[in-house]
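Example S7 (structure tokens).
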């Protein structure tokens, strides 16, 4: 499911209260899903959004002649829209249940839920306490603001009244200016968005959008002023497989090599070893020279049709030398299927007479892996 539209809406509807027509404009079909988060207010709305497309320049005034004679009147001068009847249900304002929202957010952060308004700050609440470690807790605040200026004011005030780090939750990143982001970082404030934290589940309830463990670790690291993710170890090598490409540290490399029998073709540039499995049986292992590995790796990485002399490794070599370098490499890494037929490295016609080109084009369903050592 797409990211909820609700989060943007929370930064567009002042006071988090509006008539159904206005919420529907912001939420679309999500309005029906989101019902559990809204509750009707006692007071009735005094205006409703203009239903015309394109809209006129006003919000239409609600005029109640009698309980069953309510109309919406365009306030533009001169009037641009027809006066239209309204049902009473059209002017019931619905507001976001902040406590429900705050509790869902606190749970997604992994904080103990609590509830209190922050003195002197509109639309800002303390929604929980986050355990940094067994002895220290950081307050978790939630705020919904409409303008970047108001958001900046809230940040300034929270930073001033809070000793130590805290967690700040807002609907989106949209109102956060880079200067404030830097201030939050200096103060070890962990800024999180409802957009990242929460999503609708099938039952129409708000549920954590990502693994709470990741959020916990990230939040804790930020509150302690540590980098997240932890500074990565220098990559040991890189792997390209039939499925993906990724970097590995030394342990991950060892683990992958241990799994080499799962690959029909496994070429390890760290050791130069090549293993092959055909019809479930291991074929004699090959040991590649540096030149052979470099050439074979070029074909696999580029997936291009190339003559051996057209590769970087083959440049400057005679056609015959380059070709025999390719052939000896192919014999060590590929599976021969017929007299001229190979599993992964296909022979292609080259445009020049008397020249042959090759392409790394393994059939679907063949598992293969190339490990490239990281250049020092
Ligand atoms: Zn209008
Ligand atoms: Zn109007």
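Recovered sequence:
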């Amino acid at each position: 499911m797409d990211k909820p539209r609700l989060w943007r809406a929370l930064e567009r509807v002042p006071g988090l209260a509006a008539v159904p027509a206005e919420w529907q404009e912001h939420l679309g079909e999500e309005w029906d899903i989101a019902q559990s988060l809204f509750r009707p207010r006692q007071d009735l709305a005094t205006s409703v959004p203009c239903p015309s497309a394109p809209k006129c320049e006003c919000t239409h005034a609600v005029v109640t002649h009698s309980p069953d004679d309510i109309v919406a009147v365009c306030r533009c001068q001169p009037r641009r829209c027809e006066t239209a009847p309204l049902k009473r249900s059209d002017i019931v304002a619905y507001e976001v249940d902040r406590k429900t929202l705050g509790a869902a957010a606190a749970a997604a952060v992994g904080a103990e839920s609590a509830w209190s308004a922050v003195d002197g700050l509109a639309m800002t609440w303390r929604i929980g306490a986050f355990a940094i470690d067994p002895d220290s807790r950081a307050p978790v605040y939630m705020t919904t603001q409409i303008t970047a200026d108001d958001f900046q004011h809230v940040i300034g005030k929270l930073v001033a009244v809070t000793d130590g780090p805290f967690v700040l939750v807002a609907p989106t990143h949209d109102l956060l200016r880079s200067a404030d982001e830097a201030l939050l970082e200096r103060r070890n404030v962990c800024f999180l968005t409802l957009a990242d934290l929460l999503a609708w589940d099938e039952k129409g309830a708000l549920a954590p959008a990502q693994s709470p463990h990741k959020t916990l670790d990230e939040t804790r690291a930020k509150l302690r002023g540590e980098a997240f993710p932890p500074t990565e170890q220098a990559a040991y090598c890189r792997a390209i497989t039939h499925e993906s490409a990724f970097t590995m540290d030394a342990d991950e490399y060892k683990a992958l090599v241990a799994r080499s029998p799962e690959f029909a073709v496994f070429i390890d540039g760290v050791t130069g070893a090549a293993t092959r499995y055909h019809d479930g049986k291991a074929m004699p292992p090959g040991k590649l020279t540096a030149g052979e590995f470099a050439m074979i790796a070029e074909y696999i990485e580029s997936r291009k049709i190339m003559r051996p002399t057209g590769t970087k490794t083959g440049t400057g070599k005679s056609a015959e030398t380059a070709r025999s370098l390719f052939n000896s490499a192919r014999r060590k890494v590929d599976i021969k299927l017929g007299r001229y037929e190979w599993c992964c490295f296909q022979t292609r016609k080259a445009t020049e007479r008397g020249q042959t080109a090759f392409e790394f084009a393994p059939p679907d369903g063949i598992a293969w892996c190339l490990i490239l050592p990281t250049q020092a």
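Notes on this example. The CA atoms of residues 63 and 71 lie 5 Å apart.
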